[in-house]
Design a protein that fits this description.
The protein is of the alpha+beta class and 181 residues long. The chain has one domain (50-180): Jelly Rolls (Sandwich). Helices cover 23% and strands 37% of the residues. It is built from three helices and eleven strands; from the N terminus they run H-E-E-E-E-E-E-E-E-E-E-H-H-E. It has a six-stranded antiparallel beta sheet, with helices on one face. Strands 7-6-9-4-11 form a five-stranded antiparallel beta sheet. It is globular and about 85 Å long. The N and C termini lie far apart (72 Å). Residues 77-142 form the Cupin type-2 domain.
Length: 181
């Protein structure tokens, strides 16, 4: 038997031999229902739990319990001059979407002014910081994924008013895997 004929016949034979296994291993898309772990949720602009996290007024819109711990999302309503110093997350990535005002954000040593409609991504393991600049309050939607950071914010919101005790803040954040640079 010549080489071309052997390869052709072997390929056809192998294809016929493997076809039933390939077909049986495929999920049946018509009989497998899609399972939703969580119920859908609609959150209006005025809905959510408001927390004062050391001057960062956050309205928590979606929590881990709403999203199978995939994402947490909150709205920051922050006065000029308020911000978060450089820090690094080890557990979650963050996305910042400015809706109103101007926010100076630094990610991986690159500083940019975000205005309404602008977005920044800060992956875990990369130092980042932000501060409201200009003369008006800023409104920013922040997402963190996976969820879990909301518990840290709830704990930080229980600290006494006034200048924060940085040692206590760093301890609370450290339990979430966040360190300040």
């Amino acid at each position: 038997m010549d080489r071309k004929r052997f390869i052709k016949n072997s390929g056809i034979g192998l294809g016929i031999a493997l076809m039933p296994g390939v077909l049986l291993s495929q999920p049946n898309i018509f009989s497998t229902p899609h399972v939703y772990v969580n119920d859908p949720k609609v959150v209006k602009d005025n809905d959510g739990d408001v927390l004062n996290v050391i001057g960062d007024i956050q309205t928590h819109k979606l929590l881990g319990e709403d999203t199978n711990n995939q994402i947490v999302e909150w709205v920051d309503n922050v006065a000029p001059g308020v911000g978060i110093p450089p820090h690094i997350h080890t557990k979650e990535d963050e996305i910042f979407r400015v809706v109103k005002g101007e926010v100076e954000i630094t990610v991986n040593s690159k500083t940019t002014i975000l205005k309404a409609g602008d977005i920044a991504f800060a992956p875990k393991g990369i130092a980042h910081a932000w501060k409201v600049v200009g003369t008006e309050k800023a409104k920013m939607i922040t997402s963190a994924f996976p969820a879990g950071i909301e518990f840290m914010f709830q704990e930080l919101a229980k600290l006494p008013e006034g200048p924060p005790n940085f040692k206590k803040v760093a301890e609370i954040c450290g339990r979430q895997g966040i360190t300040f640079v």
